[in-house]
Write a sequence for this structure.
């Protein structure tokens, strides 16, 4: 996957993550138990009502979840396992629309043994319309926008096949 991260953040799981690549996800920050990503909503991501399809918001949040769950620089012990979703819940709070920039902020809340609990907040903001601004940039204030969804993920670490 082409790395277009502003912060220079990368993650090994993105190497073959074609879904995240298709969505145009940018990694803004990633560390142990945390990830911040963003993307611009495109026409093919909309439902019949002209708003972001719930599945797109879910997939976007799920990518942030995966980045937060898996180590950026796995130790030799960690290299033989992966962390995946054991279950998730999502609450859609407000719609998002074509051209808006959505940002997901994922944080680990708890980790015990092979299980973890993560909260992911998804925000939407209009792209900056100032002259010279890129369509996929955040508003000049740096504010990620309005909270549009809350995603809670339960993770499980399993052996890599």
């Amino acid at each position: 996957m082409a790395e277009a991260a502003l912060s220079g953040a990368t993650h090994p799981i993105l190497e073959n993550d074609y879904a995240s690549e298709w969505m145009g996800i940018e990694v803004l920050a990633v560390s142990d138990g945390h990830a911040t990503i963003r993307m611009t909503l495109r026409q093919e991501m909309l439902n019949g009502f002209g708003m972001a399809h719930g599945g797109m918001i879910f997939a976007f949040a799920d990518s942030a979840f995966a980045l937060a769950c898996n180590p950026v620089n796995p130790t030799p012990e960690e290299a033989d396992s992966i962390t995946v979703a054991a279950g998730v819940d999502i609450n859609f709070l407000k719609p998002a629309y074509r051209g808006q920039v959505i940002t997901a902020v994922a944080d680990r809340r708890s980790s015990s043994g092979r299980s973890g609990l993560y909260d992911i907040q998804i925000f939407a903001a209009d792209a900056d319309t100032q002259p010279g601004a890129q369509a996929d940039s955040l508003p000049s204030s740096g504010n990620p926008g309005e909270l549009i969804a809350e995603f809670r993920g339960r993770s499980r670490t399993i052996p890599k096949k």
In short: The mean pLDDT is 88. The chain has one domain: 12-159. The domain at 12-159 is CATH 3.10.129.10 (Thiol Ester Dehydrase; Chain A).
